[in-house]
Amino acid sequence: MFPVSEQQFTLCDELLSQYDPRVLDVFKQELSYGMERFFLLSFCLACCWPGLGAKSDLRVVRQWAELDFAFPSEAERSLALASRAYVPGNSVPIDVDVHHRGGGQMSRIFITIPRFDEGRPMTLGTVDERGQVSAYPDYQWNNNQGQNCDGLTSVFRVAIDECSRLWVMDTGKIGDTQYCPPQLLAFDLGTDQLIYRFKVNSSLYTDTSLYITPVVDVRSRGAGDCADTFVYVGDVSGFSLLAVDVAGDRAWRITHRLFFPFPSRGSFTIDGESFDLMDGILGMALSPVSRRNERYLYFHALASTTENVVRTSILRNSSFLTNPNADPQAMNVFPEERLTQSAAEAMDRNGILYFGVMDPPSILCWNSATEFAPRNFHTIAVNQETLQFASGVKVVNNLKGEQELWVLTSSFQRVMTGTLNSNRVNFRIHAEKIPRLLGNNPCTMPPKDRLHGYHANLITPMTDRIHGSYRYGAVSYL
User: Fold this and answer.
1) Count of beta carbons in the 10 Å neighbourhood of residue 18
2) What is the rounded average pLDDT of the residues 419-438?
3) Which one of 7, 179, 187, 243 has the fewest CB atoms closer than 10 angstroms to its CB?
4) What is the pLDDT of residues 102-141, one digit of tens each?
5) What protein family is recorded (predicted)?
6) Degrees (nearest 5) of the Cα angle 243, 248, 254?
7) Which of 309, 313, 289, 312 lies closest to 300, judged by CA?
8) What's the first-to-final CA gap in the chain, in angstroms?
């Protein structure tokens, strides 16, 4: 053996960390068959597999062992500590989104901190360069432990649209207690003023409901036209979807079997720690608008390995006001599955879907102009330590018109098992420009004769059937 310096070890470790562990296993196996075969394989991969040379990492923009909050005053901080509205170490960020501002202003990074129980002083905030979290739109909106239903009770996820509006879905629930009705709010990011509020009627949610994932569908007829807006919100534990018609200031609840979790997929193992979580519809992503002015909503339950799709023209149908049950054939599941569960997802303007998987902890891409199948999933980032649970995934447009991928990851398995340790980094925000991230990844090279939504088109034929002839639950037959 020739001597290897510490610097060489570091360089090798850095290079090898950029590749999928499964690829490295192939190299190891081939090496055992002899150097001639190994070099032949290396030559073929270098010449014929363009994805191998793609940049495969995300930059860590912010990271924390535990969140640090900026209070309006030391007195407010002391009061929050005394009342246990603030318990250091209890706060867990779940989602991220970014607003790039012009005029020399700093971009703003938004994060959400759901109130699973006590000790979260803020549920929606912005992160400064030092990593401190400040309440958004201000502390008074957030200084609320369920006593003020006009404030923010508990927010899991947000969405920023092309009209510079921040959409916030407030569950109204802390732990298992429904203190306030769920509400959907929109803030003008130019003024930080509330411009829309929709309080969900009690007929549209159940005792188990938890509306957590909003995606915003704007059908603009020209620059500055934001009138035709729908927001689709996933109910992770009530197993339904809320469609909010913003212009009509109304909403309807939609039920379907594909919103439910799969019992066989409710156990998770990440970095050697296991937990059970029977969550339904959570990951949701909108396709670009097609030539027929149609969009697809891609979605999946957390406790699943499947991906599903529905035409948004079905979700926009107001007949759900009187009948929430969607026809079984109105929504469809792709025949093939992921190898492990996935949480959040997002799709870019080219119809490429980005999502995290649990094992190995990775961010993958899939071009919707190809079949949804593992052979068409390609790794763009993999890291056993830093990408363990991608709970927030967003595609963000910057001021130059470039698209960026933003991902929030956490040691969520340690949150669930109660083993979170403030002596190690537990939460990270990652980002990179998508062209730089993809490089010449196979996700950028779909068949030339196919458009985005190819596989969705195959499994979702045009139909006028909106409602099913039955309801879910045996009691409906009585």
Assistant:
1) 16
2) 95
3) 7
4) 998 999 999 999 999 999 999 999 999 999 999 999 999 9
5) Belongs to the major royal jelly protein family.
6) 20
7) 309
8) 77
Q: What pLDDT is stored for residue 292 in this prediction?
A: 85
> Does a cis peptide bond (omega within 30 degrees of 0) precede residue 446?
no
Report the distance separating Cα 175 and Cα 54, nearest Å: 43
Q: What is the pLDDT of residues 257-284, one digit of tens each?
A: 999 999 999 999 999 999 999 999 999 9
Residues 6+ apart with CB under 8 A from 42: 27
Cα separation, 238 vs 256, whole angstroms: 11
Contacts of 199 (CB under 8 A, 6+ apart): 181, 182, 183
Token pair of 451, please?
């458009």
Confirm if 122 and 59 have CB atoms less than 8 A apart: no
The torsion region of residue 330 among left (phi > 0), alpha (psi -120 to 50) and beta comes to alpha
Q: How far apart are CA 239 and CA 206, in angstroms?
A: 10
**391 backbone φψ class: left, alpha, beta (φ>0; ψ -120 to 50):** alpha
Instruction: State pTM to two decimals.
Output: 0.86
Task: State pLDDT tens for residues 79-89.
Answer: 999 999 999 99
Q: Decide: residue 128, CB within 10 A, 0-12 exposed, 13-18 middle, 19+ buried.
A: middle
Residues 235-258 pLDDT 10s: 999 999 999 999 999 999 999 999
